[in-house]
Amino acid sequence: MTLRGVFLPRSTFVFRIRDKKHFVHVEGRNMTNPFEDKDGIFIVLINDEGQYSLWPNFCQVPEGWSVKFGPDRKEACSEYIENNWLDMRPTSLIREMESASHSG
Predict the structure, then answer these.
(1) What is the CA angle 30-33-38, rounded to 5?
(2) In degrees, to the nearest 5, what angle opens at C-alpha 48 toward C-alphas 17 and 79?
(3) Which domains, ranges and CATH numbers included, belong to the chain?
(4) Strands (E), the chain
(5) pLDDT tens for residues 8-24?
(6) Geometric angle at alpha carbon 95, from 91 and 99, rounded to 5°
(7) For residues 100 and 59, is the Cβ–Cβ distance under 8 A?
């Protein structure tokens, strides 16, 4: 399933949810971006490269990502990311750099 949103002028929001069989198009005024909901419930995701993402709890976890923390308030999830994602480099780059330093 993919989830895409597009902001348009004057607080109009177009939201599309698509999986293999369905396509839903929602459009309306004064809709908010679920990723910016200060009162929303979120989860923290991580991928194979060790990269973190803050994700609304009601959304399906994207392929290639797994839940690392939550569900919890946005504040708590953001704090978890801040305290745990200490090295912004992707895991593959870290391995490559360590390998180069051991061979040189």
Answers:
(1) 105
(2) 80
(3) 1-31 (no CATH), 33-99 (3.90.820.10)
(4) 2-8, 12-18, 23-29, 41-47, 52-56, 65-73
(5) 444 444 444 444 444 44
(6) 170
(7) no
- Measured distance CA(66)–CA(77) in Å, rounded: 14
C-alpha distances (whole Å) from 40 to each of 7, 50, 77 are 19, 24, 11
Tokens of 49: 């490269």
DSSP string, 74-95: HHHHHHHHHHH----S-HHHHH
pLDDT tens-digit readout, 34-71: 888 989 999 999 999 999 999 999 999 999 999 999 99
Tokens of 90: 């992707």
